[in-house]
Amino acid sequence: MSLYAKNTSVPVERSETEIKRTLQKYGADKIGIMTEPSKATIYFRVNERDVQLVIPLVLKGAKAPGKNKTWTESGAEGETRRRWRVMVLTLKAMLEAVASEITTFDQVFLAHVVIPGTGRTIGEALVPKLPALYKGSSLSALLAENPQ
């Protein structure tokens, strides 16, 4: 199977602009994008929900898929462009599903909603606890635990 946008030449800046326009089109405000070497974080607010989506980025020299391979500079740049295009597609699909009343905003973005006062998303708080839930712990016990 071929990866989406595998050979894209679309610059990251164009994808960022497209993401901002898409978010505005669907009613988001307080839109911001922060980048650092290993990730980009998209922040926005819709329906009084603060949302945070992360795009993990690759660095030259980091382990690449395959046996004993590392990312070259051009490979890492291409993969970064590709991941931004994937995020454009992902956001458009998620927001259009909500606008088309196929699902709700909270259902689609639940894992990415920031828990007020914590700076953490619901996904960051709950996903690590899923294995314990499947091993028999009750959800109420897991939710009662203090995340640190």
Describe the structure.
- With 148 residues, this protein is an alpha+beta fold.
- It has 2 domains: 12-114, no CATH class; 118-148, no CATH class.
- It contains 6 helices and 3 strands.
- It has helices spanning 12-25, 73-99, 105-109, 122-126, 130-134, 139-144, and strands at residues 29-36, 39-46, 49-56.
- A 3-stranded antiparallel β-sheet has the order 1-2-3, covered by helices on one side.
- Helix 1 runs parallel beside helix 2.
- It is globular.
- The mean pLDDT is 93.
Helix content: 40-55%
- The poorly predicted ranges are none
- Count the strands? 3
Strand line-up of the largest beta sheet: 1-2-3
Mean pLDDT: 93
* Total of domains: 2
Beta content comes to: 15-25%
Q: Characterize the largest beta sheet: strand count, sense, and whether it forms a barrel.
A: 3 strands, antiparallel
Elements, N to C (H/E): HEEEHHHHH
**What overall form do the CA principal axes indicate?**
globular
| Helix/strand/pairing category | alpha+beta
Radius of gyration of CA atoms, rounded to a whole number: 18 Å
Total helical segments: 6
Descriptive key words:
148 residues; alpha+beta; 2 domains; three-stranded antiparallel sheet
